Structure formats: C-alpha cells, structure tokens
C-alpha cells in the first residue's frame, strides 16, 4: 500500500470528496419513506435488510444498515488517485493510528471497490476509497437531481467539545482549509462554527461549539448532513413532502450568510438532521488562491426559523447541567497536530 520515497508534504487538498455516509438504524421502513418519498432520493434494497440511497450514478451515497446506533457511524471519502491515497494512509499510519482494510462485503455494500478505515473524531470512522461503483440503472426518484461531482455529495456538521482537536484532525489528514467562521450570539451563548473545505465545496465539514461550555447536548455524533438539490423547485418540493408526510421540520427555508445556500433542515428517522440545500457558493480555482476567511455574525440572512427545539435551545436548557459528569469526547490526539491557519 505504501510507495517508497513518497513525498508526504504535498497537499491533498482538492483531491478528497465526501463520497458516502453510513448510518446504523433499526428504523428501516421509516428511512425508506423519509429518503425516497419525502426527500426524493433513489432507494435500493441491499443485503440483510439494509437500504442504499442514490443521488447520482454512484451505487450508494447513504447506506442505512441495520443496528441499534441510530447514528452516522462512518464517513466515506473519495480520494482521486492512488498516490494521494497512499499519502493519506502514510500520514495516519506514521502517527501510530491503525489503518485497516474493510472487508469485501463492506466494500460491496458501500458501492466501492475497496476501502480502508481509521479512527475519527467523536468515534465516527473515517473511510477512504479511490474507485466507486457506478450503476447502469437509471435513477428512479422524485427529485430531478442532486449536485455531487467535484464538490462531493454534500457536507457534515458536527458539534464538538474539542473543536480545535477536530479541526486539527481534518487539517492533518486531508489538508482542510478554513473557509470562514460564524460567531453567533443567541440567548447569551456564543456559538462558533468553523467551516472547512477540502475541495471546491464551500465546506465539507462544519465544526460548532459554544464558547466556554464543554457540553454536547446532541445524542448523535453529527448534528446534520447536507445534500444539494439541482434546482430550487426540487428543494422546495422536498420541503413540502417532508411536511406533508409528517416528518419533523427543524428549520424552515432560509439562506445562509456565508455560503449563500438556500436550505431547510428536517429530522431523519435516526434523529440527526438532514439539510437539503440549493445553490451554495463554489470556491473554484479562480477564487481558491485569493480566498480570505471572514467571520459572519449570524448563520442566516433570512429564514431558517426554528420549528421545535433547536441545538441552541438545548444548550440553554443544558446550561444548568454543566456540572453533570460527561464522558470525554473521543478525539484522535495523534492526528490533531496540523498547523493552524
Ligand atoms: Fe449545513
């Protein structure tokens, strides 16, 4: 797997793309209805009662496997070529973190030829692969399409009690770059979000924390996963179906300040949120070299009105419980040494 004499200092930025998300759930029937009938993704049955959702010609973008976690258990990252792949493996392995090859069954379920896995922040396994399986069968879905390609399938937003460690992790492993910050004051709490990119997508990873409070009131390891509709009509039709079918909306349609994405957030059957968005800013090659991170004072320009209890409500509610003993957040200290930009 290792190339002798590999130059490890070359950046892998731009060659890494969010490829798939693995969820463990026993609410398979709800997931089918949510993913296919409400969100409008293509659904296929897989072995052992698992579901796979497609967004494009790839065999799987969401893999919902049976199990009790009701959470995201792994993120799959596509790496453009074998040299880059080897460089990432070397970074992880040389720092003493085991990199393990996934089995043939796991690879088949995820729709990739082979995959390797290593530990990630908050216990979310990080998987890397180079060759995805594509499907000749046309998509059968309510949505007219999803934006994937160079930008990957969307983004992941994570609440962290150890945001610097998590940011260092993605810098060390994938050469993530800071796109911008949101610093928002709500109910006397200051929430900070760091938006990290690994390719032209404005952010593939967002890391949020509340200043001065090492508490995470979210049960699931991710706060939300984002996918991007091709058209505004698709996004709005999904909003309507989610509401009509009785799934829980979390934030109504609104527009973000930093990436200008229009979106809504709803609750998946496993209780983390799914953001369906449209038309975010793309940081193409012409912008990349001159991009300067800015800090925005709020998450949204308009809309994103909370429907039900939000993350911040939970923080307010949990504020009094700060003395409660909490397990330390899972970090990967060997991989959090990346320089800060
Ligand atoms: Fe998001």
What is the CATH first-level class name of the largest domain?
Answer: Alpha Beta
What ligands can be seen in this structure?
fe (ii) ion
Give the biggest sheet: 10 strands, mixed
CATH topology of the largest domain: 2,3-Dihydroxybiphenyl 1,2-Dioxygenase, domain 1
Beginning-to-end CA distance, first to last residue: 31 Å
Q: What class would the helix/strand composition place it in? A: alpha+beta
> C-alpha Rg, in Å?
19 Å
Helix content, binned percent: 10-25%
Query: In which order are the strands of the major sheet placed?
Result: 17-10-11-12-9-13-16-15-14-18
Secondary-structure element pattern, one letter each: EHEEEEHEHEEEHEEEEHEEEHEEH
Strand content: 25-35%
Please provide the count of β strands: 18
Shape, please?
globular
- CATH homologous superfamily designation of the largest domain: 2,3-Dihydroxybiphenyl 1,2-Dioxygenase, domain 1
CATH-derived architecture of the largest domain: Roll
Average pLDDT: 92
Poorly predicted sequence stretches spanning 5 or more consecutive residues: 1-5
Question: How would you describe this protein?
Answer:
- The structure is a single chain.
- The protein is of the alpha+beta class and 341 residues long.
- It has 2 domains: 16-129, 2,3-Dihydroxybiphenyl 1,2-Dioxygenase, domain 1; 149-325, 2,3-Dihydroxybiphenyl 1,2-Dioxygenase, domain 1 (Roll), CATH 3.10.180.10.
- The protein is 20% helix and 31% strand.
- It has helices at 28-39, 82-94, 104-110, 163-174, 232-244, 285-288, 311-318, and strands at residues 16-25, 42-45, 51-54, 62-66, 71-79, 100-101, 116-118, 125-129, 154-159, 177-186, 189-197, 205-210, 224-229, 249-256, 262-267, 273-278, 294-296, 300-303.
- It has a 10-stranded mixed β-sheet with strand order 17-10-11-12-9-13-16-15-14-18. It has an 8-stranded mixed β-sheet with strand order 2-3-4-1-5-8-7-6.
- Helix 1 (28-39) crosses helix 5 (232-244).
- The longest helix is centred in the first third of the chain and has 13 residues, at 82-94.
- It is globular, with a radius of gyration of 19 Å.
- Residues 1-5 have low confidence and may be disordered.
- Bound molecules: fe (ii) ion.
